[in-house]
Amino acid sequence: MSRISLTASLASATALIAGAALVAAPAASAAPSEGPHGLDRKVRAATGRLVADGAPGVIVMTRRGGRVSHVTAGVSDKATGAPMDHRLLFRIASVTKSFTSTVVLQLAAERRLSLDDTVETWLPGVVAGNGNDGSKITIRQLLAQTSGLNDYTPDPRVMTDPARAWTPSELIAIAMEKPPQYAPGTSWNYSNTNYILAGMVIEKATGRSVGAEFRQRIFEPLRLRNTSYPTTDSSFPGRYVHGYYYDYGDVSTLISPSSARTSGGIVSTVDDVARFHRALFTGRLLPPKQMREMRTVRPVNDDGVVEDYGLGVARIKFSCGYAWGHDGGFPGYRTWTYTSADGRSQAVITYNESKLEYDKTFRADLAKAADTAFCA
Predict the structure, then answer these.
(1) Distance CA 375, CA 320 (A)
(2) Mind giving me the DSSP string for 258-302?
(3) What is the CA radius of gyration of the chain?
(4) Is 323 in contact with 345 (CB distance < 8 Å)?
(5) What is the pLDDT of residues 159-209, one digit of tens each?
(6) Staple partner for 195: which of 72, 108, 226, 263, CB 3.0–4.6 Å?
(7) How confident is the model over 69-123, as pLDDT tens digits?
């Protein structure tokens, strides 16, 4: 899926990136407390295959009831050979959308807005021009990716100026330069534009920054101590996974998160991401009515990924049944999250290389790894 991935060259970043020699990846390892469980052995083998296929490093977190396990393989930093570690920070990219949707739905539950409100009601004049009309698009359609609005991320201005600090209004203005792809509500397309607008609605409805709302409503209540929402600072607030983007190498701190924001800007760890999703899908963050809204899905095929998309979350079919979650891609980072409806089974998979996105062998092994981690 197109989850904040910049597919053209990062021209202005090239001079900043030094070549790094690829070091031999250590074998997959599991936390000492895991023991000789069959699940761990299977996940360890699957994780090792992903590194053999070309991923510098991989983290797989699994949950079965009260038992949480971490399996890692490869390196978090090619330059030093530092091993992958499940405690490291990484950019969760479009997994952020589930956080954004949750806050919007909380505001709907508080009757501070309605999902049937138009974008024009909250953001007058922002969605306009070239056939784009905010008076015809609802907040629900933003969250469901059915607004018809174009995605701003493929625009060359975004792709070739990765360090620039973008404002939400500037990103929306780029999307407004093209006519909509279809009439609102009549089809589906994955567009980060929708979630930048959702973030702007949050700030308009609350009078506070999205970061403050994330902290008060999600980060602090769930004790997500390793989760943050940077808007312009490309550094990490702690030890982190280094992300690699095609021939440009390590781009971990070269790209401003301002181009992602509420569509993909959160930094976190596998455990914090899993804790959030477990709380969300077991009903701790939203009342039943809003959970039903979030879980109202439609079948989609986005760039080869077949799933059912709801409001900032997706339902994915596995050999053992369905999982809920979202995936995300940011230059150098790719993450996949899966949680059962009862919260007893979970899997989070993350790795640090963008060039594997369309590698058929890797994607096939990734699908097997995901099914193993969630179902075995």
Answers:
(1) 6
(2) GGTGGGT--EE-HHHHHHHHHHHHTTSSS-HHHHHHHT--EEEEE
(3) 20
(4) yes
(5) 888 999 999 999 999 999 999 999 999 999 999 999 999 999 999 999 999
(6) 263
(7) 999 999 999 999 999 999 999 999 999 999 999 999 999 999 999 999 999 999 9
